[in-house]
Each structure stands twice: as C-alpha cells, then as structure tokens.
Amino acid sequence: MKQAIVTGASKGLGAGIAYHLLMEGINIVDLSRSGNTEIKALAEKKSLTYKHEAIDISSTQQTLQFFESWFNNLKDDRPEELYLIHNAGTVDPIDTVGHLDPNSVERSVHLNYITPMVVTNLAFKRSSELDISLIVVNITSGAADKPNHGWSVYGSTKAGLNLFTETAALEQKEKQTRHTIISFSPSIMDTEMQQVIRSSSESAFSQVSRFQKYKDKGELRQPNDVGKALVTLLMNEPLENGKLYHINDLLP
User: Keyword NADP on this protein (predicted)?
Assistant: First the structure.
C-alpha cells in the first residue's frame, strides 16, 4: 500500500496533485481547512481512501500533533511507501519592508518554512523507526532565486526551504537511508495565489501589472496540468535526492 499526505489538497495545485496520485492508486490524506468533494468521489470510485483533516498548517503545534497521532496509529497497517508533499503556502504579506504586518510575517514563516521543516524532521525519524520508504516534496518558487519588490517574506521562506531540502538530502545520502527529499518549482499557475498577487497595489508590488498581463494573455498554466507533471515525475523517474525540479523542464 502507498499513501500520500498532501497539505492544501483541497484546491489549486494541491488538488491537482491529489487527483493524479489517486489515478496512480495512491491513498490520500488532505491536510487543509476545507476538503474536496470531487477528489473524495474519485477516491470512492477507485476504491481508494481520501481522508480530509481540517488543520491550520500555519499552526506548527497543531500540524505536529496530527503527524504524531498519524504515525502512532499506523501499527501493523503501515504503508510500504509514503509521499509527504508540502504544498500549502502563502505569498502574503505582499509589501515593502517597513510596511509589513508582523502577524502576517509570522504566519507566513510558519506556513511556508517552519512547519515543513519540523514535520519533515518528524517524518524522517518515524519512517525510519517503522521501516517506511519516505519521499518528501517541498513546493518552492522561482521567487527563492532572486529579490522581488514586495516579496521579501515569501522569497526568503522559499529560499530557506530550498537550502533545508538540500541539507536534509545530503544527510540522508550520508546515512544511506531509504528517504528522498526534493524541491519542485511549479512557476506561475491560475490559482488563488495569483489572484492575490494581481490585486496588490503597485506601491506594495511594483511588478503587479506584469502578473496581470499573464492572466490577460492566458499565460498561466492550469494547476491540474502541473500536478500531473509532478506525479508523473514521482512515479516514473529515478529521483535525485536534494534536486530542485522545475516545471519548465517537464512541460513545454
């Protein structure tokens, strides 16, 4: 049996990933504030499981409590392979340094960076104890590679997560474990995050007009297509531990 835990699988890229994992015969646990009835119906049709857990991923404590309980309840019915996909994230706060809301900064850092780190830390430990092969995917962004006006928090959290991924992979290779961790950059998609970006003021995000043009010109990929490309990669390619995979290398 194969199992996948996907954060934010109720919509957007997370839903696309969950859909195509189900198509590959993999059971899904969706950690998000709301579930997805279409994904649940597909799971039932394919005699698979789709379990929704209403969790606020920005709460590190709440998320860790779920994972501790999940691993404790596996007992003899543990999966032979576990996919852990850290998809949930936020681009907020979009604003220049000096005008950032501290509460929004804290939530972003927890959601984009701290929670994926501490959950991966726990998952590595418990998967080793239970002899489960673990594959971790951290959804990142091109914003991690260079400074973008108004995106100091988002870019910094994704850059930090990239380095964490590389370091964790290095350690796993040295220990010769069965665990793999990679980063995946989906580029720009037609999601709610893009709506948030397009609604920004020019003073908060100087390149807002460029992102508005992406939508107007139909240059945004559909999250279902991006999700399919990631799942195809996971199912069919030998993964390189620590590598950052980019959607532009997988889709035309």
Answer: yes
